[in-house]
Amino acid sequence: MEQNVTPEITENPSRAAAKKVFVKTYGCQMNVYDSQRMADALASEGYGPTEHIEDADLVLLNTCHIREKAAEKVYSELGRIRLLKEERAKKGWNTVIGVAGCVAQAEGQEILRRAPVVDLVIGPQTYHRLPDVVQRVKSGEKIVETEHAIEDKFEYLPAPQATIVRKRGVTAFLTVQEGCDKFCTFCVVPYTRGAEVSRAVAQIVAEAERLAASGVREVTLLGQNVNAWHGEGPGGIEWGLGRLLFRLAEIPGLDRLRYTTSHPRDMDDELIAAHRDLPELMPYLHLPVQAGSNRILKAMNRRHTADEYLRLIDRIRVARPDIAMSGDFIVGFPGETEEDFEDTMRIVREVGYAQAFSFKYSPRPGTPGAELSEQVPEEVKGERLHRLQALLHEQQRAFAESLVGSTIELLLEKPGRQSGQLVGRSPWLQPVIVDESAGEIGDIVDVRITKAGSNSLFSEPVSVRPAAAQATLAEGGRF
Ligand code: 5AD
Ligand code: SF4
Fold first, then answer.
1. Which ligand has the shortest distance to the CA of 329?
2. pLDDT in tens, 179-204
3. Rounded Cα–Cα distance for residues 342 and 340 (Å)
4. Residue nearest to ligand 1 atom 9, measured at CA
5. This prediction's pTM
6. Ligand closest in space to the Cα of 194
7. What's the CA-to-centroid distance between 238 and ligand 2, angstroms?
8. Which H or E run includes 469?
């Protein structure tokens, strides 16, 4: 998964025209959010965005370290960037090259050694220092900034400006929690993103209100372990994610809420109650289990059994019967036998996933899993992944087919690939195509699903419910 984040605007176009930044984002949604916040911070320093890397005075790679392949991609990209920098230098243009994200955090100085083209390396906890770091690089320093800052970066990062948000569309990410204390034995996150930190309630509510006022109708709360989020509500009362969702649902115009990624151990009663009571909370839950064998779950330090996971899903389904499940799976964790793998297939059959991500185990340096002796051969991992993905794919297809003929609410998001069409998002996160007569971008409309394609659904309009509440707020001049 790679995406270019190119915020369209700065408040000062003349300064923006002078310098350009190109940000390439790898990995998870949290990186997508971070890239936007970095671009915002640089906009206030006069950097405008560009979609063309060859025009960029500053190139930032926001990287992912979760699996080996993801990390290696960065080095091949840096090879290409070195040539680009040389080309630009021939024209007398300087290019600053930065590596941010989890590879930056994990490898630090090593990146400068392997790729001398890099000028700055900055870890996720210090993005608020980026403008200052760029200034220092320009005066000839090479900088590695990977200390875990004591100050709260969110306090220092400029709030996304309304104009920028408006250009970005009607759905947005909002990071509420970062880092992880769970230490699953395969995972680098506790090392790259550090200990679990929750953002304060007031900060989150203010950001959500700003998003709503600029036309955002769907917000996805992000965290590596989002359901471990906790904060202090008014009167000093301890809040969990469930309570926060109840509060965010009160914001006029915010009609859809989601959160990702969750750990089964942190699904508490209030969060399940939020699924039962909040129509704004979309009936779709990404709840990774990783494996179906208790022996492997234990070796992974997941701290729950397969049965506990299944019973949890039963409770969630009682609360919200139309909930669709999504998950992550790893095949070939050290010591995984054919029988263990069959347990993974069994849990998949029992749950029935609407969507899922599955990976071959990739030993990550510094994690306990990488030290285990019984590593599973690559061909075995490949063959198991193939079987698992066939099953998951079949389930995804069956879920999409089950919607044909039904009427669903669609948030219209953007123009479709073909003229005259719009693409929206179903409550279950599927792209849905509809004729543009269905409504305006930002409307939530009723559509009837007519066909399930391989990656999207097709639909016809039924009725329109315009974004009245949101329009009032946006025009209310909150800025
Ligand atoms: N190897 C393979 N997959 C991994 N994941 C995390 N670490 C590894 C690893 N070392 C997967 C998990 C996690 C998702 C984000 O990436 O399934 O939920
Ligand atoms: Fe990694 Fe486990 Fe934490 Fe998820 S819960 S980020 S898999 S250590």
1. 1
2. 999 999 999 999 999 999 999 999 99
3. 5
4. 362
5. 0.89
6. 2
7. 24
8. helix 468-475
